[in-house]
Amino acid sequence: MLTGMRKGNVCGIFNGVLCSLGFDGVIRQAIHQLKYRNLRAIVVPLARLLTGYLITNPVPGEVLVPVPLHQKRLRERGYNQSELLARELGKLVSLPVVDDCLIRQRHAPPQARASSVEERRSSAANAFTCRNHKLQDKQVLLIDDVTTSGATLDACASALKAAGASSVWGLVLAMEI
Questions:
Q1: Quick one: which of 133, 130, 111, 135 has its CA closest to 122?
Q2: Are the C-beta atoms of residues 114 and 144 closer than 8 Å to each other?
Q3: What is the pLDDT of residue 92?
Q4: pLDDT at 115
């Protein structure tokens, strides 16, 4: 089931969000297998879903930027699922992946554990920064696996725009409704 595109000022900073699926059923299981069970092989079919959706619903984008994990979470998990999705998507749509500019500078509990939108926004606020101006004047497609409130995407977009990105669109596999 395609949930469609949300354009405009969804949560504040980013230009809009493209979301291909609802976060339920098989897609929920697939994302959980990827994130928590190290089933990296599922990245290829998930990226193909994103590719098909992006081709059908094009938005301006010159580079793919995965939502970064904090170094502590990256060490625990061993990989960033958003980066894996971005890398595979980049191959399929011939866009470069920039994964060394946007960083998560503050560790926080997983957003899935937050009980309210306000808690999610508070947790994500000022958690991200850009190391440099590599994305100055670039149209960014920000890649993540799931969005709920848009707080993480909004915080990332804020950092990207502060570093000079001309536009930031979120592209997520699933949205929890």
A1: 111
A2: no
A3: 97
A4: 61
Residue spans of the chain under pLDDT 50:
1-11
- Are 67 and 142 spatial neighbours (Cβ–Cβ below 8 Å)? yes
CA dist., res. 144 & res. 69, Å (int): 11
Query: Rounded CA gap, 154 and 13, in Å?
Result: 6
Q: Which two tokens stand for residue 42?
A: 């599922």
- Is the CA virtual torsion 87, 127, 157, 19 positive or negative? positive
Q: Note whether 156 and 64 are within 8 A (CB).
A: no
Buried b (16+ CB within 10 A) or exposed e, 65-80: bbbbbbeeeeeeeeeb
Domain 5-175 has CATH 1.20.1740.10: no
Q: Where are the alpha helices (DSSP H) in 8-77?
A: 25-36, 43-56, 71-77
For residue 157 the two structure tokens come to: 């977009």
Structure tokens at 146: 């799931």
* Tokens 């291909």, located at residue: 20
Per-residue confidence (pLDDT) for residue 13, from 0 to 100: 72
Residues in the chain, how many? 177
159's CB contacts (< 8 A; 6+ apart) are 102, 128, 129, 130
Checking DSSP bridges between strand 128-130 and strand 102-104, what pairing results, if any?
antiparallel
| Confidence (pLDDT) at 159 | 96
pLDDT for the residue 121: 66
